[in-house]
Amino acid sequence: MSISRRGFLALVPAAPFVSSPQPTQRVSPNPRFPSHDDESVREIVGASHGNLARVKEMVTARPALARASWDWGFGDWETPIDAASHVGNRPIAEFLIASGARPTIFTAVMLGQLSIVKALTEATPGLQRMRGPHGLTMVAHAKAGGAGAADVLKYLESLGDADPRYPDVPLTDVEQTAIVGEYSFGSGPTDRFKVAKGARGFTIQRPGGAERNLFHHGGLVFNPPGGEAVRIRFENGAVAVEDGPVITRASRI
């Protein structure tokens, strides 16, 4: 007995339909989407100062984090490679570069890449005076690099101006009393900041934020690290934070 193709197919039981697995989808709770969430960016930058295992874990899972950047305040931007560079963590820096991070001249300084540092500084007069994240100088990065950056340190020191420091005029007891305390600049629950004296000197901190050092120019005028163009002025229980023409005023609580 012959069976036609149509007849044969009629005798074969139909295979159950199996759909292809679909990627998991969810509504992002990140208010900055499609940018990275703040928590992950802050964590990868923090970990890049010294936690190689965590850096590898985060970047392996989300490679784009190798190039993330966090603003500590008034343009004090720091990427993971910046963090590794200013603390002299070569293994983290090398891992980040291999993962797509963009090295800077400060990275070259820390890694002891003398030919790169010389070429860039000679091509751009005055570049050696540029500060990195937190206002840290090229000399500071070279010192963080240790023995591997010794030749770069020697070269930078020979230039005579590669280690510009912020002014830090001592305060009298009366001046210290005049600035320490809490200040409010709005009606919201976090529209305030605290000025305190601690082991690192005088700091300013908003609720939930990081402590930022204050560098005194004299006359109760300060700048935060990485924000040398910003001025924080104290007078008669009030503060004016001047970022060019943008001025935020706060009063002591």
Taking the sheet with the most strands, its summary is: 9 strands, antiparallel
CATH architecture of the largest domain: Alpha Horseshoe
In CATH terms, what is the fold-level topology of the largest domain? Serine Threonine Protein Phosphatase 5, Tetratricopeptide repeat
Please state roughly what percent of the residues sit in beta strands, choosing from under 5%, 5-15%, 15-25%, 25-35%, 35-45% or over 45%: 15-25%
- In angstroms, what is the radius of gyration? 27 Å
Helix count, DSSP H or I runs of 4 or more residues: 10
Cα shape: globular
The topology string of helices and strands comes to HHHEEHHHHHHHEEEEEEEEE
Derived from helix and strand composition plus strand pairing, the structural class reads alpha+beta
Question: What is the average per-residue confidence, as pLDDT, rounded to a whole number?
Answer: 91
Strand numbers in spatial order across the main sheet: 6-5-4-3-11-10-9-8-7
Proportion of helical residues: 25-40%
Number of domains in the coordinates?
A: 2
Describe the structure.
The structure is a single chain. This protein is α+β, with helices and mostly antiparallel strands. The protein is globular. It folds into two domains: about 40-160, Serine Threonine Protein Phosphatase 5, Tetratricopeptide repeat (Alpha Horseshoe); about 175-250. The chain has a nine-stranded antiparallel β-sheet with strand order 6-5-4-3-11-10-9-8-7. A two-stranded antiparallel sheet has the order 1-2. It is built from ten helices and eleven strands.
